[in-house]
Amino acid sequence: MYLYLDAGFDRRTVQQADGSLKEAQSVGGFIQPIYYLTETINFRAAFGTQVALSDDRPAATGSFTGGDYVRHTNEQFELSAWWTPGPLTFAVAWNHTDTVWRRVDPASLATTEQTGTNDKFELITWYTF
Question: Vertex 55, ends 51 and 61: CA angle to 5°?
Answer without folding.
Answer: 100
